[in-house]
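If I may wish for something, please sit down with the protein I am sending here and say whether tokens and residues agree:
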Amino acid sequence: MPSQPNQSEGDPASPATVLVVDDEPAIRSLLTRFLSKSGYTVLESADGRDALEQLRQRKVDLLISDIVMPERDGLEVLRSLRNDFAGLKVIVMSGAFDGRFLRTAEMLGAHATLQKPLRLDAVFETVRQVLGMD
């Protein structure tokens, strides 16, 4: 993976709160550390059910969610967001190589998609674009 942007590149003007949802602890931890060092406030969740609970309890600017997860998968979360959190910006990620899940997520309103394995430079640029920081 490429090196992470330095603090002066990645420091948002006003820190956004990002909720990272992935059932794989290594990916969740990597994204949390990377986004925190880039100046964002980061929350974590291991599944869609917990993510929706966190969204009800706290203001979140951006949701970054895996699609294939236990409990409630990313597509179910997107469907719920359309009703309860219509203004929330969403980036979805998937390791499914045929792209079917990512295309479905876009139809359900995802603002951007990321293919796993993740490249941190692509994550950084996508987050900035979706949050309107470019």
